[in-house]
Amino acid sequence: METPSPPLPLVCVTGGGGFIGSWLVRLLLSRGYAVHATVRDPGHPKNAFLMQLEGAPANLRLIKADMLDYDTVATAFAGCEGVFHVATPVPERIVDPQKEMIEPAVKGTMNVLKASLAMKVHKLILVSSVGACIFNPDWPQDMTKDESCWSNKEFCKENENWYSLAKTEAEEIALDFGEKNGLHVNTICPALVIGPMLQHVAINTTSKVLIYIIKGGPDMINNKFFPMVDVRDVAEALLLLYDKARPSERYLCSLDLVELNDLLGIMKPMFPTYSYADKIVDVDLNIAFTSDKLKNLGWKPRKLEETLMASVKSYEKAGLLHVSDGEPCRLPFLFRMPPA
């Protein structure tokens, strides 16, 4: 009689249907994990692709959960040895920042932290953002930012940078909670995440940014733009942290900064038929930072050209780069510059 195989290690990915979450689910399944993926509606067409991933029928379970509802979060984490908290609110427009961005991010993170502790989760990896690191006017202009740099929350408020404020508060709370409660918590701060999409029903915000850069439109965009990183490399980095990082460490996750004019200089010869953004504003802001800490852990990101090629091919396949006779392409609200 054959000895039954031991059960696969079980982890949970919040926001499993999202851009980063879905690539992470795909990677975890390929590496021999069983996965709980939280989604708002397991039956929604935008989540159908998840169960078509290799290994999904046997080892993936979609769980209806709302990060603001503790009981649904705890249910999703039951039996899991690890949690990757990827889900985050990104509203199209912000009318009430406290209600629409800050409270959901902070309360959702607290529910994840408390549920992880209650369900005896061994490790929690939280996806933050470079927005929680780079907006600090007190940081010396000639110094490259690293993980010791935190965004200044008052500066974020003054500039109505609500996304970065929410990410900063949530990440601070997570690391503090982990240290005080003996929970293994790590945070990762990715740059602007681009790359090929696994589904095209719901387009994520950062992909919309690159689509706008390619197609052009009426909105102003900052030349000192966010550095970029491939979504597949973010997934690899998350699993690397899970395997190797010591507790209470944060990691920046990005390629080197490329200014928008230089990015266009790379893209136009590669894809000469597109219009490209031309309303570019030069802003005096030092957002250069290093991901050496993550690279020293073993992270090996793709080259930017490879990511751009895969991104554009994905957009073309989905018909996202066709020029419409109706509404112009718009830059997502969070990334728009005020009119000159």
Notable features of this structure?
340 residues; alpha/beta; seven-stranded parallel sheet; two-stranded parallel ribbon; 11 helices; 11 strands; globular
Low-confidence blocks of residues: none
Structural class: alpha/beta
Find the count of extended strands (DSSP E, 2+ residues): 11
Looking at the structure, what is the overall shape?
Answer: globular
Major pleated sheet: 7 strands, parallel
Going across the biggest sheet, name each strand in turn: 3-2-1-4-5-6-10
Assembly state: single chain
Percent helix, as a range, is 25-40%
N-end to C-end Cα span: 76 Å
* Average residue-wise pLDDT: 93
The arrangement of helices and strands along the chain is EHEHEHEHEHHEEHEEHEHEHH
Number of helices: 11
Residue share in β-strands = 5-15%
Computed Rg: 20 Å
Describe the structure.
The chain has 340 residues and is an alpha/beta fold. It is 37% helix and 14% strand. It has helices spanning 19-30, 56-59, 70-77, 97-118, 153-158, 162-181, 205-215, 231-244, 260-270, 292-296, 304-317; strands spanning 10-14, 34-39, 60-64, 82-85, 123-127, 184-190, 192-194, 221-222, 228-230, 250-253, 280-281. The strands form 3 sheets. It has a 7-stranded parallel β-sheet with strand order 3-2-1-4-5-6-10, with helices on both faces. The protein has a two-stranded parallel sheet with strand order 7-9. α3 (70-77) packs parallel to α4 and α4 runs parallel beside α6. The longest helix has 22 residues, at 97-118. The model has no long low-confidence stretch (mean pLDDT 93).
